Amino acid sequence: MRLTGHGLAVELPPGWEGRITRRHQAGPVLHVATFPLLPSDGDYGGAATGRMRPGDAFAALLEFSDPDRIRPGVGLFGPLGQPAPRPHEFSPSQLQVTRPRQLGWQRFFTADGRTSCLYAVVQPAAGGIDPLVHALDRVLATIERSAPASA
């Protein structure tokens, strides 16, 4: 299923859920998950990740726009191109909200002139972290950006 909105698009495989919203006077937020998402949640999915079970994955893509303070390709947003998550990069220390058995990953970057943060959480099952991160990577690799979003 293709999900589009606010200058973003993503392909969701069967069993995945997603939504694209826009924060008041801010950039869009994309959430994708292997479990049902609630209509309202924080930008980094604090409520959603609290409902994760073993074998679940969640990711949030947030765009930031403040021309007085944020410049594409500079500082925190210096890395160019959307990064791809790798299993060895996930850690409990990267979680927005620390929960037992969950691992997080977060990167700031600039892609297509848009400053963004990609945040992901996995809760490995018996099969380990690799299958979850690879599935998450396949979904995130389908993200497309159209004309830059404006606040």
Q: Quick gist of this model?
A:
With 151 residues, the chain is mainly beta. 10% of the residues lie in helices and 33% in strands.
Explain what this protein looks like in three dimensions.
The protein is mainly β. The chain has one domain. The chain is built from 2 helices and 8 strands, in the order E-E-E-E-H-E-E-E-H-E. It has helices at 46-49, 130-140; strands spanning 2-5, 8-11, 17-22, 28-33, 56-64, 103-111, 114-123, 144-145. The strands form 2 sheets. The protein has a 5-stranded antiparallel β-sheet with strand order 3-4-5-7-6, with helices on one face. A 3-stranded antiparallel β-sheet has the order 1-2-8, with no helix packed on it. Strand 3 and strand 4 form a beta hairpin. The longest helix has 11 residues, at 130-140.
What's the helix and strand layout?
Blueprint: E1 2-5, E2 8-11, E3 17-22, E4 28-33, H1 46-49, E5 56-64, E6 103-111, E7 114-123, H2 130-140, E8 144-145
Antiparallel strand pairs: 1-2, 2-8, 3-4, 4-5, 5-7, 6-7
Shape: globular
* Biggest beta sheet attributes: 5 strands, antiparallel
Spans of 5+ residues with little confidence (pLDDT < 50)?
Answer: none
Gyration radius from CA atoms, angstroms: 15 Å
Overall mean pLDDT stands at 93
Strand composition percent: 25-35%
Q: Roughly how much helix do the residues carry, as a percent range?
A: under 10%
Structural class, from secondary structure content? mainly beta
Which H/E pattern describes the elements? EEEEHEEEHE
State the separation between the terminal residues, measured CA to CA. 27 Å
Oligomer: single chain
Lateral arrangement of strands in the main beta sheet: 3-4-5-7-6
Integer count of domains? 1
Put simply, the count of helices is 2
Number of strands: 8
